[in-house]
Amino acid sequence: MEAIEVTDLRKTYGDRNAVDGVTFTVRAGETFGIVGHNGAGKTTTVECLIGLKRPDGGTIRVLGEDPARGRRTLAERIGVQLQESALPERIKVAEAMRLYASFYRRPGDWQEVMERWSLGQLARKAYGDLSGGQKQRLMLALALVGRPEVVVLDELTTGLDPISRRETWRLVRELKTSGTTVVLVSHYFDETETLCDRVAVFARGRIEAMGTPGEITAGTGTASLEEAYFALEGTDR
User: Fold this and answer.
1) Which of 31, 73, 95, 226 ranks highest by number of CB atoms within 10 Å?
2) Residue 184 pairs with which residues in a beta bridge?
3) Is the Cβ–Cβ distance between 85 and 148 less than 8 Å?
């Protein structure tokens, strides 16, 4: 069963093709990676996926819905953590959890979600006083409090120290074991190679390769996704 279906997606800004004929599917329950350098078309694709931007061409179906038309319906079924996500500096962790739970008709128990993601001891701490890793953990918990069927994570570990990054990877693996469909957008090749069942390698607004990390590296005769990317682009590091 496909949770997401994207066919010939196109989005332009002036004379620039930000997304140029992208097609892919995401199976229910898998962790699907979208990887590429800045400007490759990753974020624009995700913004179309979640209904923030309307495509100039092609079709998108998320859980059977067109995000451009059914954004309100999908808001109850998908969780989103965007790169630019932030909260007011003085809001407490528990306050944020309770607030986000109130946005849904049938949310999960926000206190239980808070404990699951090791935020209980931070309940009374202000967002502005959290470390980078703690902030990311909170934003992930907020994306999950509505019990979504699909979670979209955009540049989840950007700016995190190595320990916080590895802890965040552990949380993403837990999502997979719960059966949640995860779309992980990243410019870190090792991250997608480690966490994702399948990966779409973006460059210049197009998908240059797609498959399991092993299939992509085997197809390019390389030892890693990062090496595969440069081989596909025809450039040196």
Assistant:
1) 31
2) 33, 153
3) no
